[in-house]
Amino acid sequence: AQSVTQLGSHVSVSEGALVLLRCNYSSSVPPYLFWYVQYPNQGLQLLLKYTSAATLVKGINGFEAEFKKSETSFHLTKPSAHMSDAAEYFCAVSDRGTGGFKTIFGAGTRLFVKA
Amino acid sequence: NAGVTQTPKFRILKIGQSMTLQCAQDMNHNYMYWYRQDPGMGLKLIYYSVGAGITDKGEVPNGYNVSRSTTEDFPLRLELAAPSQTSVYFCASAGGRTEAFFGQGTRLTVV
Questions:
Q1: Of A9, A34, A103, the CB nearest to B33
Q2: Does the CB of A2 have a partner CB in chain B at under 8 Å?
Q3: Segment A38-83, tens digit of pLDDT
Q4: Chain B contact present for A45, CB below 8 A
């Protein structure tokens, strides 16, 4: 069965420091992978996606992620954290369901940014 | 450009009551999803649909029902509300095996 594991429910970094949010997946078919961000009391917004093209994917707000098949990972990074990056981040995989594809989410990682 | 619209935004139900959460999208997407979000649990897929007339169970379907009579609408029905169904519910749509667009959520409390 497909699944997504996000390591660390909370991550705290200082402003200007590297952000690294970890995601590992399992999938029965070549995966499509996504990172979403959720700000308080809002829905989810797409940060970036991997759909079998380039393994290094760039997204909005300076985030990027690298697909590593051998490690079944899709970690999210940003070189320099900003206070506005404080939010909850979700990794997701699109996998085959009975009649089509369904998107399964990880448990989320809350990012705190310290001044 | 409305995107995905969910109604209501908030609702308080008594145990045993029923209600329907409404979801509509105007992007002509085939795929639609219902998720529930509980603290520390991420989003759990309740039901999904790959087109009008086609629905399938997700990870946590018990206590819920759905229908998809049109491309635009995907209502979620709670028949006998229980405290365990207190959650934030998100509807989403997608054009295919690609990114999902989310509504703003419905915060449901069952007392």
A1: A103
A2: no
A3: 998 888 999 999 998 789 999 999 999 999 999 999 999 999 999 9
A4: yes
Q: Are strands A44-50 and B19-25 parallel, antiparallel or unpaired?
A: unpaired
Residue type, A71: E
C-beta atoms of A43 and B90 within 8 A: yes
- Residues on chain B touching A51 (C-beta within 8 angstroms): 97-98
Cα gap B7→B75, rounded to integer Å = 10
Q: Does B33 touch chain A (CB under 8 A)?
A: yes
Best CA proximity match to B74, nearest among B97, B107, B43, B47: B47
Say if residue B83 is preceded by a cis peptide, omega within 30 of 0.
Answer: no
Question: Hey, is B28 helix, strand or coil?
Answer: coil
Neighbours of A78 (CB within 10 A): 21
Q: Burial of A74 by CB count in 10 Å (0-12 exposed, 13-18 middle, 19+ buried)?
A: buried
Q: List CB contacts of B62: < 8 A, sequence separation 6 or more.
A: none
